[in-house]
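Subject: Protein record for review, amino acid sequence with backbone structure tokens
Why sent: The fold of this protein is of interest and is recorded here as tokens.
Enclosed: The protein record, placed directly beneath this head.
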Amino acid sequence: MFKKIEEIFSIPELRKRILMTLMLLAVFRIGAHVPTPGVNGHALSQFFQNAGNSLLGFFDMFTGGALEKLTVFAMGVMPYISASIIMELLAVVIPTLAELKKRGSEGRAKITKYTRYLTVVVAVIQGLAISIGIENMRAPDGSPIVFMDGWQFRFIATLTLTTGTMFLVWLGEKITSYGVGNGMSLIIMAGIISSFPGAVINTYSLMETGTIQIIPLIIAAAIMVGAFIAIVFMETSQRRLPIQYVRKGNAGGTVNAGNSYLPLRLNPAGVIPIIFASTLITLPATLATFMPQDPLVQKTNFFFSPEYPVYYVLELILIVFFTYFYTSIIFNPTDIADNINKSGGVMPGKRPGIETANYIDYVLTRLTFVGAIYLAVVSVMPQLFIRAFGLPFYFGGTSLLIVVGVGLDVIQKIESHLLTHNYDGFLKKGRIRGRNWS
């Protein structure tokens, strides 16, 4: 292991990227402690201690505790994710956006620009809603959380929260460009990991006071270990479709120029559907928590609160929907078949063109079904157990899946750098690159 670490830091470009990633994530963690003006941090922390096992505490986990303190990064990158979801949906119904996606890097740059603009709009709306709602909140001892007048606080808080979100978006893009891995996902993962120490201390305190029994905790730990093994297996396994490359021979016929394969992951969509579903399902419930007097919001909260079974049904539906939706966005069987044909490749037993595309689509559909069921089970089942035994909400499948999934993605990118420089993979014999499954 130490030799591998030495090899990693012996490559100047990789060393620079890793250090850049760590430095930018450190900036994120520092900013997560800069408070928003006009907020009584102590009173707000008391409020969140009571909400720790609710959906509000779950949402706070994604921001690394920034929401609990209402710091400048309290909304995290969730407005950007919401904007990304909206843009992806609009691209399906608006031909102009769909055409932009086909223009390569130039089109993607324009869509990214539009997504940033939409992020500002979403962040302003969410920031204003939070600032209005938080004025009516009280700590358990009755202390007011806001000590600034009406619209003055709303303006300052909305501006602060929106600026913080856009700074994180910029930070995430820099990590993606100059670091290792996807910047937005790494920011979310860093927020979750930063909650580890507090979660462990809180769990130990609850166990000492008798609030949590040791047996349910052991069972929960066993479930998490099982979920971890399942996540690693699913995220590293592949369905490999064989490809034969042919070229013209001297006598005018064709000869085999080599064999390869098209690697398709068992979970093609990765952790993105979980992030998308979590973002959408937390927004209404968060607003409902901030606006307890609004009857319409409270009625909406019925459908988006973990206290009701309908919440888990909605979460399952969202996860399955986004698994299929996101897979259809990142994989186009027709384009894949065309690229294989243009490179002189054929799939054994399949004619080039539409037959190859249909076969790829058939395999992808089966894999997407497996991926959707896997994501839904890993996300929802631990939550049901947690609710049944009153364990801290933190120990859930969603957080584990994001941390492991993003972590594996970073390891794979580091491994690709090592292989490029003629080093062995990060794990022995490169097992992280994927095992075949058919």
The mean pLDDT is 82. The chain has two domains: 1-194, 196-438. Residues 55 and 237 are 32 Å apart (CA to CA). The first strand starts at residue 237 and ends at 248.
